[in-house]
Amino acid sequence: MQVYHHINDFTRLENAAVTIGTFDGVHLGHQQIIKELTDCAKLIKGETVVLTFFPHPRMILNPENHALKMINTMAEKAEILDHLGVDHLIITPFTRDFSNQTPEAYIKNVLVEQIGLKTMVIGYDHRFGKDRAGGLNELKQFSATYNYTVKEIAEEDVKDAAVSSTRIRNALNVGDVGTALELMGHPFTLSGKVVRGDQIGRTLGYPTANLFIEENYKLIPADGIYAVTVELLGNRNKNQQVNDPYHPANAKKAGSHPHYQGMAYIGHRPTINGMSRNIEVNIFDFNEDIYHQNIQLNFLHFIRHDIRFDSLEQLKTQLAEDKKDTIRYFARG
Ligand SMILES: Cc1cc2nc3c(=O)[nH]c(=O)nc-3n(C[C@H](O)[C@H](O)[C@H](O)COP(=O)(O)O)c2cc1C
Ligand SMILES: Nc1ncnc2c1ncn2[C@@H]1O[C@H](COP(=O)(O)OP(=O)(O)O)[C@@H](O)[C@H]1O
To answer: Which of 198, 202, 228, 272 to mutate to test the pocket of ligand 2 (most atoms within 8 A of CB)?
Structure first.
């Protein structure tokens, strides 16, 4: 997949099948749109283009709204779209100028002249252009003039499945990573660098790698303990991943890097009166120094809520129970 950070970097295609959206979570509904896009591209012997906005329009229009958290970082989204076989991903900065275009100007200047639109695949409720005046009707209205077709994804197709980014965010906010997995068809992930903590973990017999997440817009699930798989990504630069998905350090094929099971903790560590909200993982059958490495946690199952214990000894007893519960979860297959 080719990634572009500005529409001007894009070289117009002969036959582009295009879709536009935020695609947060790249859930089963989104995957249906991408599948439709791929089928349309085959019909016109063309290539697939996903046009997305980053930062999210609401982050720009509402920068003080810290409540707006995203299921995916841009890098994670790019990676999933790449796996789904998308040919071109255009990440457009959402500027006032851009959003002030009329629907026709947007269709003509951006979609037709800069991208080479031949087939538009679009969800029933997508809006674009100044005051969100553009939608399916406008796309259809100008299709004859600018010589493209419109493939609509019907409301019932998306709604039937009851899949939405909002529903996934709500599930994650209460720790229900199982529902998120079901609605996305892939696990919710957190990735970042391993940083030093207070080094208490190892004294309990449960060393925990502490995760630092760079993207402040990333949604962190509810406090609690989770069954996760852990991928050791080495020292790759996550930003490079978006800029250059072909960089060898960014190749992330199944089995190309170590994969472990583990139990993750999200919370303030009330037992030791911790101040910060930590994301930590105890990796099973593992004993290596991974400070400064990038790791990815794949969240599969909620184990329990965070608890304040009266002593570290009690916490340690509970950690042994958590490990048993987590192993039992994985054994269930
Ligand atoms: C699976 C797991 C469950 C945990 N559960 C709790 C908990 O219920 N209450 C709590 O205060 N801390 C909990 N912790 C966090 C520990 O307090 C923390 O790992 C320990 O203080 C070590 O911190 P350090 O990595 O900064 O050294 C848990 C950690 C893990 C890995
Ligand atoms: N099984 C393991 N799970 C997690 N980290 C491990 C494991 N074995 C070794 N480590 C290393 O130990 C560190 C965690 O030890 P810990 O005592 O909890 O220190 P800290 O408080 O700095 O996280 C990790 O960052 C990692 O480098």
So the answer is: 202
